[in-house]
Structures are given as structure tokens and as C-alpha cells.
């Protein structure tokens, strides 16, 4: 079963994410900000991370940069960033920072699930390639 870490400071949105993902067959972990998310990533090694960008303590961009720079062994974990900001520059910044994908709020859960399925397929393909060596 694929484990998805949901990092979102808005409780209602986080609860909706967890509910939708659980119903879709994913195991979920939760964190309310980037710092808590980092602790969960380091201790639980989730398969995929869904993170809001605008959060207190440590935002989604800072969390992604922390993983990419200081925890290279975890840099292959796909990050899907969420935001209410819809400007092109913000989207490009997230993708250039290493995010696998980027979604705007309000969330379209069908689109989110499709993007998660794509991440799962890439993870499975990577594992198959690694086993062949």
C-alpha cells in the first residue's frame, strides 16, 4: 500500500485530503506545517508527499529545498505542491524546485488522484529498473 504524507495547515483541507486518499486506498500520514512534515519524512519515509505551499513555521518550498539540499537520499520522493496562488511564476518556482506536480485550490480530487496514480506508476517503474541491475 502506498503511503502519502499530507502536509496542510488548514485542518478542514487536511481532513478532506486524508478522507479522499483513504477512500482511494492510500495509507495516509498527516502534518500541519513543513517542520512537522520534515520530521515525518525523516522518520516514516512516505512514498509521496502532498504539501501546501503557504504554511507557518516552514512552507512547502522551504521543505522541498531542505529535502533536496540536505537529505539527498529522500530527494526521489515525489512532491505535489498545493496552493491558492494561481500565478504562473509560483507554479514555475515549485516545479523548478523539484516538485513532481503542482495543484491549485480549491482542489479537484479527481485530478489529484490522477496525478497520484502517475507518481505511483513512476515509483513502480523506478523500483523495477533498480531490481534489474
From TrEMBL:
<keyword id="KW-0238">DNA-binding</keyword>
<dbReference type="InterPro" id="IPR039420">
    <property type="entry name" value="WalR-like"/>
</dbReference>
<dbReference type="InterPro" id="IPR001789">
    <property type="entry name" value="Sig_transdc_resp-reg_receiver"/>
</dbReference>
<dbReference type="Pfam" id="PF00072">
    <property type="entry name" value="Response_reg"/>
</dbReference>
<feature type="modified residue" description="4-aspartylphosphate">
    <location>
        <position position="52"/>
    </location>
</feature>
<dbReference type="InterPro" id="IPR011006">
    <property type="entry name" value="CheY-like_superfamily"/>
</dbReference>
<keyword id="KW-0597">Phosphoprotein</keyword>
<protein>
    <submittedName>
        <fullName>Response regulator receiver protein</fullName>
    </submittedName>
</protein>
<keyword id="KW-0902">Two-component regulatory system</keyword>
<dbReference type="GO" id="GO:0003677">
    <property type="term" value="F:DNA binding"/>
</dbReference>
<keyword id="KW-0804">Transcription</keyword>
<keyword id="KW-0805">Transcription regulation</keyword>
<dbReference type="GO" id="GO:0000160">
    <property type="term" value="P:phosphorelay signal transduction system"/>
</dbReference>
<feature type="domain" description="Response regulatory">
    <location>
        <begin position="3"/>
        <end position="120"/>
    </location>
</feature>
